[in-house]
UniProtKB/TrEMBL annotation:
Residue runs in coiled coils: none
Signal peptide positions (record): 1-22
Name of one Pfam family that matches: Peptidase_S10
Designated name of the protein: Carboxypeptidase
Length: 510
């Protein structure tokens, strides 16, 4: 299962003030100047420790919520107490409720190299970008109140790792290896979280991490790092569209686990026989999952030892579930790559399908070939998100800078060695009786697919001793399942109830 590897996307800084839908904030209190061009020099000046505070209200589930928004940078310190980077963050704190004991959610997106923009203005934050009910871009660009935000039950900080958003390294001599790798990323972000929690007096708060995509690798590792290096214990971790979390699959297992995703996508595009199409998706998929684990996986493990008749029987069943031809499946020895699936399923109609969300269609230069020319869903999301986040940060939160907001930033080469984050999360849960886990997946996500998310949980908890603190939920959408309005309502309420249920009334003991 591949991680999202994207180049830096230049942020749009030209704004159309009149399209913003959110109410105007109260007068701005500038606590320290955001970075701007120096009067005496044409060079950009980066301040790793500066914030701007504004005051706002939002109506969530019919209740008016007053809050302050703090947008700015907070340093990453080295061992000698020197600032080596400044992380841009946006912190929302409810002001009409007592802070003591109020939950804090720390939110990361993925990539690696992606800013926090996606969940910030698409999921849990107090404003929501303008898209249609299925998540597609609309114009004019803008944003509005998010009536489903979780700010009513928890304060939230959205964090941009180094080189994403407005976050930058301080100084040319700082080694990038301090930031760009699975374990380096976890270490410096844990240090930064300690600084944030201390500065904003949140040690007494129940704490939650939420991560999406590679952000799930990040927060899974952080759960243990915060315990072991900072003695900071969490109440919950939310994984949105999780990666493999360093849990080894092997070639045969990796190939087999794709089939339920193929089946969900084929069902969506109505490429299955009537007996499958007439079923509800959630009623159809268990049959495919059972076949995957009990027939397809053993068959793939046999390789050339698999009898020809059995191979054809397996291919016939795969074709029925996936919408592909039996011939294509046999030509690939029962191992159909995701790229080929995205190209093949709608080939005869002249379309490809999206990697991160198979509901999206693309048009290639030619119908031939084994992979799409581009990711149809990602181009649509960049189209939808980039103008509003630049408009919102500048116009509503009053954070003004000439630095580009890196929706995707340069963080490569990335060191993926020694990724044990799934085991790290299991260890954190086993040693912290308060720690709960919620996993959310989109059925049409082909990069971090829903069945691999289930497989993670089976491998993380082989004894089943943790299952009373683990929840999994599937949604009829893709990687960012919250872009679909119906799923946004359901998934935010699920997080809201998860937070409430994981605040204990008894001591932390088994």
């Amino acid at each position: 299962m591949n991680k999202i590897l994207c180049c830096c996307f230049a942020a749009m800084l030209t704004v159309l003030h009149t399209v913003a839908q959110a109410p105007k904030p109260a007068p701005v209190k500038q606590e320290a100047p955001a970075e701007t061009r120096k009067n005496a020099s044409p060079d950009l000046s980066f301040n790793p420790d500066a914030v701007v505070t504004t005051n706002h209200t939002v109506t969530i589930k019919g209740q008016k919520v007053a809050y302050k928004a703090i947008a700015g940078t907070l340093p990453v310190w080295d061992e000698d107490g020197k600032a080596i980077a400044g992380l841009f963050y946006t912190y929302y704190e409810r002001t009409d409720a007592a802070k003591g004991g109020r939950p804090l959610v720390i939110s990361f997106n993925g990539g690696p190299g992606s800013a926090s923009v996606w969940m910030h203005i698409g999921y849990t934050g107090p404003v929501l970008l303008n898209i249609d009910d299925e998540g597609y871009p609309v114009q004019p660009y803008g944003y509005k109140e998010n009536p489903y935000s979780i700010l009513d039950v928890a304060d939230i900080v959205y964090v941009d790792p180094v080189n994403t958003g407005y976050s930058r390294i301080v100084g040319k001599d700082v080694a990038k290896t301090k930031f760009f790798g699975v374990n380096a990323d976890i270490k410096y972000l844990a240090d930064w979280i300690n600084t944030f929690v201390t500065r904003y007096d949140r040690w007494g708060s129940p704490k939650y991490l939420i991560g999406e995509s590679y952000g799930t690798t990040r927060v899974s590792g952080l759960a243990l790092e915060l315990q072991q290096a900072h003695w900071m214990y969490l109440n919950g971790v939310v994984l949105v569209s999780p990666t493999t979390l360093g849990i080894e699959r092997g070639t045969a297992t990796d190939a087999a686990l794709r089939l339920p995703y193929f089946a969900a996508t084929a069902w969506y595009h109505k490429k299955l026989a009537a007996n499958f199409q007439q079923k509800e998706l959630e009623a159809f998929l268990p049959e495919v999952e059972d076949f995957t684990m009990n027939q397809l996986l053993p068959a793939l493990n046999k390789g050339s030892l698999l009898e020809e008749a059995t191979k054809r029987s397996i291919a016939e069943k795969m074709a029925a579930y996936s919408g592909l031809s039996q011939q294509v499946i046999l030509q690939n020895n029962l191992d159909v790559s995701p790229n080929l699936f995205w190209k093949e399923l709608l080939r005869n109609e002249g379309f490809t399908i999206g990697r991160l969300d198979s509901r999206y269609k693309g048009i290639d230069k030619r119908d031939g070939g084994e992979r799409p020319d581009f990711n149809a869903e990602l181009t649509a999301w960049l189209h939808a998100f980039t103008p509003p986040v630049n408009m919102y940060l500048r116009n509503e939160l009053n954070y003004k800078t000439d630095y580009p907001y890196n929706v995707f930033g340069p963080v490569y080469p990335w060191d993926n060695n020694n990724d044990r984050t799934g085991e790290n999360l299991r260890s954190a849960m086993s040693t912290n009786p308060y720690l709960h886990l919620l996993v959310q997946s989109g059925y049409y996500d082909g990069a971090c697919d829903y069945f691999n998310a289930k497989y993670n949980l089976w491998q993380m908890d082989p004894s089943g001793r943790l299952k009373d603190r683990i929840q999994w939920a599937g949604f009829r959408s893709g990687h960012m399942m919250y872009l679909r309005k119906e799923d946004l309502k359901t998934s935010t309420e699920q997080i809201r109830q998860f937070i409430k249920a994981s605040i204990p009334s008894k001591a932390a003991k088994y």
